[in-house]
Amino acid sequence: MPSVLVGELPAGARPVDVREADEWAAGHAPDAVHLPMSELGNRLHELPEDQDPLYVICRSGGRSGRVVQYLVGQGYPAVNVEGGMQAWAAAGKPLAGEGPDAPQVI
After folding, report:
1. C-beta separation of 106 from 27 below 8 A
2. pLDDT (tens digit, 9 = 90+) per residue, 12-63?
3. In the annotation, is 58 catalytic?
4. What are the structural domains of the chain?
5. Please, are residues 28 and 17 in contact by the beta-carbon 8 Å criterion?
6. 58, 68, 85, 89: which one is catalytic?
């Protein structure tokens, strides 16, 4: 499965975040596209068309790895972001949240 480290993401990459709504609301990459794994099959039309490859991210890399396998099987150029949002936060990358609390990865 193709993968990339958080530090190797190109500038301007917009990760496809496949975590669930509560995880997204707590903290996500500011420019990410939210497509929960549980809804992906019905929302493929929402994948960014201007990004090749698609950088798929979850909390730690497990769910995103499964999504990458699925997307590659469907003909999409997808890459797993190793370590997920935990690695993103550990690398000091910016986080955005949807509530009054400070953004965090849950």
Report:
1. yes
2. 899 999 999 999 999 999 999 999 999 999 999 999 988 899 999 999 999 9
3. yes
4. 3-90 (3.40.250.10)
5. yes
6. 58
